[in-house]
Amino acid sequence: MEQLAENLFDLYMQLPRRFKKLFYACSQEQDFQVGLSELKILNELQKIGPCKMSELADALVVTMGGLTPHMDKLVEKGFVRRFRDEDRDRRLVLVEITESGKKALKDVKEHFLATLEDYLSKFNERQKKDIASAVKTLRETIDF
After folding, report:
1. Cβ(79)–Cβ(34) under 8 Å?
2. How far is CA 79 from CA 105, 116, 135, 136, 144, in A?
3. pLDDT tens, 59-100?
4. How far apart are CA 59 and CA 64, in angstroms?
5. Pick from 119, 120, 115, 71: nearest CA to 97
């Protein structure tokens, strides 16, 4: 069991850097309109829908101070909109992904996934199924 924990720790330390490297390689081939941090924000907003900035920061596990500059850029680009919640409390400001933001997210995600598929082609079908199963189990089991 200790070996599993150690392997997961090593994976955690390496995977973000590897994905970042892959993302930037993709972004040089294709002119992405968003950076990696903005992509994460758009992806999360699409999943959770309109929300308060504090809820989004919690979902992304970032501080409000770290999130705000990225949100300002996304609003400026027209990918996110801020609006007041007229139904519940007009003082409450919510954020949501726009149609332009959904399109930008879709375009980047499709290109990134195609590039990732190329890298995953070195695995045989059985290995791919095993990895997919392990990832699914981790996502369903580990809740923190």
Report:
1. yes
2. 9, 25, 30, 30, 29
3. 999 999 999 999 999 999 999 999 987 777 777 889 999 999
4. 11
5. 71
Q: What secondary structure letter does DSSP report for 1?
A: -
- The structural domain count of the chain equals 1
Three-state DSSP class for residue 79: coil
Q: How many residues does the chain have?
A: 144
Residue 14 maps to a domain: no
Q: Which domain holds residue 38?
A: 31-141
Average pLDDT, the chain: 91
Continuous segment of H or E residues that includes residue 97? strand 89-97
18 within some domain:
no
Q: Give me the half-sphere count of Cα atoms (radius 13 Å) on the Cβ side of residue 96.
A: 9
Cross-sheet strand order for the sheet of 89-97: 51-52, 89-97, 80-85
List the CATH number of the domain containing 104: 1.10.10.10
